[in-house]
Amino acid sequence: MTNQRIFSMPFAKVYPLYVQKAEKKGRTQGEVDEVIRWLTGYSPTQVSRAIDQSVDFQTFFDQAPRLNPNVSLIKGVVCGVRVEEVEDPLMQKIRYLDKLVDELAKGKAMEKILRSE
Fold it and tell me: How far apart are CA 20 and CA 28, in angstroms?
């Protein structure tokens, strides 16, 4: 899949997959929402609006209030790619989100996922 196809994919199509992945491992939709809000600075209302309006990933991240200042602490591999080495800024943000959801699904403590320690 090309970057352009991913960038134009509606966030609303991927969001349920994030929730499903987390719930399969005993986590909650609320926790998925928490990591999304931590990464992007969106409020709960803003996340819901982005989903309802079916904005694409490009718009979702372009309109994010602020990327978390601790985003550089997100490291590791997701989908076979080391997130800290992704060159395209938008793709890197998408991979950061993928990585956070992966960590959630793997049972990592929320404090560690949100880089609070």
Answer: 9
Domain housing 86: 3-113
**pTM, two decimal places:** 0.92
**pLDDT tier for residue 29 given thresholds of 50, 70 and 90:** very high
Name residue 42's amino acid: Y
Q: Give the span between the Cα atoms of 90 and 39, in whole angstroms.
A: 13
List of residues 6+ apart from 87 with CB closer than 8 A? none
Q: Residue 1 is inside which H or E element, if any?
A: none
Closest CA to 1 of 16, 14, 15: 14
Which residue in the block uniquely carries the two structure tokens 């978390």?
68
CATH code for the domain in which residue 107 is found: 1.10.8.290
Q: How many folded domains does the chain comprise?
A: 1
Rounded to whole angstroms, the Cα distance separating 60 from 82 reads 22
